[in-house]
Every structure is written in C-alpha cells, then in structure tokens.
Protein 1
Amino acid sequence: MRRPADRQRARVYAWEDAEVAPRGGGTQPFGRAQPMVDAIWRDLGLRHPPAVEPLPRQSRRLQADANRLRLRLPPEWPDWLLLHELAHALSSTAEGHSDGHGPRFMGLYLQLLERYMRLPAAALAPSLRAAGIAWDPAARPLFLEPGRGD
C-alpha cells in the first residue's frame, strides 16, 4: 500500500521548532513515557494505549516515531515530543492508515498541546496560518471512526 505524500511535514517541524519547543518544560527520561502515555490515554477516555519502546540506537534521522500501536522514543526526550507522537498514535489505525502530519494530526496535536501544555490553540492559530499549515479543530482519533475499531 502506497501512502500519500506528507505535504505538511517540513512545515510542521519548522513551526514546532519555532512555536512549541521553546515553550516546553525540559526533557524527560525514557522510564516516564509509558506511565504518561497510559495516563493521557485514560484521561482522553480511550482504552488500549500504544506501547512505548526505545528508539533503535542506530536511528540517526528520527527523533521519535509512532503509530496506533507503538511509540518509539530516545533515552531522553523533550516533553512536547511525547504529545507530537501521541497525536500520530491518535491519527492512525492498527492497520497502518495514517494522516501523516495532515489536518487531523494537527488538530489532535493542538488539542493535546492545549490540554497538557496549556498552549491555547487560539493563540497558536495565527502562526499555523502564517506557516501554511492546515488543521482540523474538531479532529477525533481516526480509529474511533465507524468501522475502524480500537
């Protein structure tokens, strides 16, 4: 199955470096990730959180990655990175369907930033528009769509 191009990826990374990373609260050790994922997943009213695994040591291009079933993180990670990867988990399915860095992902990411880092989506919206990034403010997890399952 060929995936569609992730057209917003570079813009999202640049926006995140400028708008989110400077407002982060520091780094966290790997051991805190699974309890945080479990707590956030539960807080969102969801079951079956993704498993947290170490990012392979040989990985040079990735800071982290995630899908519906798994988040992979380095030994230490910035707090906002966990929310970014959780947005990937929320915007994908166990079968591999994903929004990439598209409007659903960005809508979910903004919801997580607002809820857990207290960064108001309304305050971030002008910078998203300026960066040419589309987002869906009403985004819901992809796997909650009818017929997608959890």
Note: The beta strands are 27-29, 51-54, 65-66, 70-73, 76-78.
Protein 2
Amino acid sequence: MEKHPVIFTGAGPGAPDLITVRGMKALENADYILYAGSLVPEAVLQWAKSGSEVETSAGMHLDEMASKMAEAWNEGKRVVRLHTGDPSLYGAVREQMAKLDERDIPYEVIPGVTAAFAAAAELKAEYTVPNISQTLIFTRISGRTPVPEKESLLSLAEHKASLAIYLSASMADEVADILSKTYGEQASCAIAYKVSHPEQNIILTTVDKMAGIMEDNKINRLALIIVGPFLDAKGNAQSLLYNKSFSHGYREEA
C-alpha cells in the first residue's frame, strides 16, 4: 500500500482564495483533513474534494491529534493538517511533528500567508520603508504561554521597529502601556481584527486610544496590534532600488 507524507498546510489568514495554490491542491487531493477549527474558517474547506473526511481539532489535545493523523496515514490516506496563517508562526507545529517522528511517519510543510501580511495589504502599507524601518518583528506579550525574558514586549518595542503583536488582544491595556513607554502615546497603530474574514475590522488609531477602542468594539481575540513609524510614511520615503541613478545587474546608471 502506497503511503504519502502528512502535509502540514497553512490556510492563510482566512479568505479561502488567500491559501497558496500548493495548499489548495493539497486539500483537493486529501482523503483526511484535520483542521484547526477554532481559527480556520470552514470556507477554506471548499477546496476539499467530495468524499474526503474532515475533522476539527478544536476539542482535541496533542495526543488525540497525533493519533488521528497516524490512523489515517496507516490506512494509506493522504493526510492534511490544516493550520491558520503559516504553520511556522504560533502554530504549535513542532510538537505535532515530534509525535509523527516518534511513529516514523514522514511529513511535509506548505507555508501560508500570515495575518500580518494580509493586514499590510489592507492598510496599503510597507513594513520596511527606507530610512524609516528596515526591521519587522513578530511577537506576543507574555500570558498563559510565557515569553522568554530576553524577548519581552518591552525589550523588543524599545527598538521602535515595525512591530506586529499576535495573540495579545485580551491584554490590550498592558500592551498599550508598553507601547506608550516606547513608541509614545501619540504613535500611530492599527488594530487588525479577523483580517480577510467577512467580519474584518481594521482600525487606525493612536496608542493612547487603542485599548479603549478595542474594548468598545469587543475585540479581545483574533486581532493583531500593529505599530511602527512605517504607518506614517509618506511617498517621499523612497528606496534606491528604483532610483534612476542606482545601477545594478539589470539596469545601467542613468
């Protein structure tokens, strides 16, 4: 019996057409799909073929998920483990891979579009604006899942780089306090709720108003907090790449 690697697949930020082509094809070929039902909208499952078995992992613990994938794989089924966004970012994917390693089950990974990139697209913004910011940091505030002390939000925010804060909407007051001390109370920030979903709500505001706006809009999960000087960048912040006096391997100096 031919067996195929389990495929960990990024579903993207939510909109079914923001999954990658490779991810879509994996779903089209899958016999068994275990998806993160608390985060991945069912609309993404429209790419699954008729007759495939689909289960949500929302109520499962790690061993249950591993057993489900192993059982389907042992039956010769094409197995897809569908994660929200990109599996490598806050996906708890390494521990699932370790369980498959214990069973000598091969696996592959298909990347996905993370919410921070979908948010930038909606904001029509660039995180890496020349002379303003050339660094983008993905992080979260310490909560039930602790953050290493050297990676505390305060420590990272002191860089004043472009900052996308995941999994922290429930602690908006604490996040706002830290950002006020580093970026300043009047610094521009964006609240990106359920980016690319039908319920999407993206709010541009300032750090001092952020927590109040989130409370008023009942946003306490499924939202990114984005901050950085790139939000205020104007059109005169230009790179050398397209400057007519900048030569490179494909264009001679003007």
Note: DSSP finds seven helices and ten strands in the chain.
Protein 3
Amino acid sequence: MIKFVIAALWLVAVTLGTVIFSFSMSGPKTDKAPQPAFFGGLDYVKTDIISVPLMKDDEVYGYFLTRLVYTVEPAVMKTLSLPAEALLVDEVYTYLYANPEIDFADYAKLDLGKLRSGIREAVNKRVGKNLVHDVLIEQIDFLTKAEIRDNTIRRRTSPFEKPKEAPEPAVH
C-alpha cells in the first residue's frame, strides 16, 4: 500500500513539474530578439526589364537594359501613394538622364557600385525617407543601335524559320 501511495505522489509531482515548466516556457520572452539575418525584415521589389534609350548629340546611340531588385523598408512602402515599381523605374530614367557622364559603351569605366548607390540615394531623396536599403542588379546589358538592327535582321532571315505555306486554292 505504501508503494502505491509513493508511486501516486511521484506521478503527481512529475505532472505538476511538467505543467509548471511548460507554462514558464510559453510566457513572454525577456531576452532581446535576435538581429535579423542579411537583409532580414526587408521586402524585395523586382522590376521588369527597364529599357532606357541613351542619347548623344541628339541621336539615340544605344539602349541600357536592366532588371533590378530593390530591398525596401516595408513600413515606408505602406505609406507610398503610388506603386513602388513605377517610382523606382522613374528614378532609374531620371538618374541616367541626369548623369550623362555615365558611358555604358565603355565597360572598363563603368562603376556599377556608383550606379547602384546613385539610384538608391536618388529614390530615398525623392521619397524623403530611407525606403531603399540596397539595389541589386539581376541583369544589365547595353545594346548599340547596330546590334539591335543586326538582331532584327537575323530574326527575319533565320534559317530555322518555318517556310510559309502557300494558300490552298479555292474550290468552287
């Protein structure tokens, strides 16, 4: 009988200890939250391909093509009254036209870090808050007018193009 009472008391003590432990672990945390990982807590805004015609001597000499990804502050994004992608694309155009010294034809002199930071600063200045934390380049190309013409001609005269079928004669 004593063994039965001791076993019952032991089961009650273990159960009570488990309940107290589970309630203490589910309570509010007093420690600081861990720092977010690289770009943690930020949203990503991905643009479609942006095509900017570049002018020199009142003539288009090529096209700057890019696809960018912006890391943005979600709280600031919610306060915008226009779509973020429209604002970001507009700032890319504005930045490139405001800086004619950027020469995409000369790859050796092209400073992508300066381009990225310039776009980020231009967007943040326009918004008046720290919206964009970083500009990531997913794709970047520069095509001259001659390259675009060559690609168009090649596409029209492709040897892999299906031959056009002759129309069937009308039966009366």
Note: The radius of gyration is 31 Å.
